[in-house]
């Protein structure tokens, strides 16, 4: 399989070198037969080619089986014309590759329970997956715009829209994820679909379609439904009631950030965006952190855990994914912490930089 790495800007380059070292290690150790290539995206691509997603990068991404992405953006490009900003490259690559399913895991490493703002007994053992529809819904629906009315007032409007094929393809991903996770954990498969069917017709269709899919093809999955506002509350009150959640683009945007922060640090959160054939782009949830870029302060673990997600979902090699996750857990057990996950009130911890953290993970994989 071919893997394309796009380090991007800011801390993207620092965390990517650690992730590539880890990937090379497991590639050799488990004889995965992966070949790696790299290309430019974001601000560095603007500097070199004038656009955030050069044709050459897109062609390589299309040709690859999976893409690993660091992060894009930085102060240098904050004031250039909006249509060619680094983030545009990201939106374009997602839509050009048809990456409609966004997967975000919110897993609490018990060693980091102190970093969360939620009481330990509520979050200990937390491991949930949010499946968010990424290329439809209100973020893309037409018509949209801001118009001036006859009386001079302004009118802003967007359209929330989903067709049954769009709902079915994301539903399929979510049901299958619930089944896969149940197989790995030995627990019952559970899926909670989040909507606002009490007020929005589009999500009434969502709920109906997901219900029909459950009854027709996924009777082994315990399906429940929840309104988005209640889901926000329940995620704080009792997040362990969830295993897999599936929802549309806007609700997923909000819920996945909320779920991520249950774990206390953005530097620990990997994500995947998949197309219909399981090809995916894997990236940390955080951005390019220009405030700490170039200082060896970035936490590389979200990037390294994104490699594990790639091995699980695209390469379909569970053993190597688990080995990486275990190595991450082991370095946390050893008390190693980058600044973002350092709890200063806890004794016995060592502050380390990005490189030392990456090397420690690598050493655990030896
Ligand atoms: N996927 C992406 O590439 C992506 C996502 C979000 C933001 N961005 C871009 O990144 C730039 C900065 O955005 P922002 O500041 O809003 O978000 P950010 O995620 O880059 O940073 C937010 C805060 O978290 C810290 N942080 C983030 N990742 C960290 C890590 N791995 N280790 C330690 N600390 C970490 C940063 O130092 C900062 O204080 C902007 O140009 C933005 O457009 C890119």
How would you explain this protein's 3D organization?
This protein has a 10-stranded mixed sheet, sandwiched between helices. The protein has a two-stranded antiparallel sheet with strand order 6-7. Strands 13-14 form a two-stranded parallel ribbon. The relative contact order is 0.17. The chain is an alpha/beta fold and 366 residues long. It folds into 2 domains: 1-100 and 271-366, 3-Layer(aba) Sandwich (Isopropylmalate Dehydrogenase), CATH 3.40.718.10; 127-262, 3-Layer(aba) Sandwich (Isopropylmalate Dehydrogenase). It has 12 helices and 14 strands. It is globular and about 60 Å long. It has helices spanning 11-29, 43-49, 55-63, 86-96, 120-123, 164-185, 201-217, 228-237, 249-262, 301-313, 318-333, 354-364; strands spanning 2-8, 35-38, 66-71, 101-107, 127-133, 145-148, 154-157, 190-195, 222-227, 244-247, 270-274, 280-284, 336-337, 350-351. The model has no long low-confidence stretch (mean pLDDT 95). Nicotinamide-adenine-dinucleotide is lined by residues 11, 71-74, 87, 90, 266-267, 283, 286-292, 298-299, 302, 338, 340.
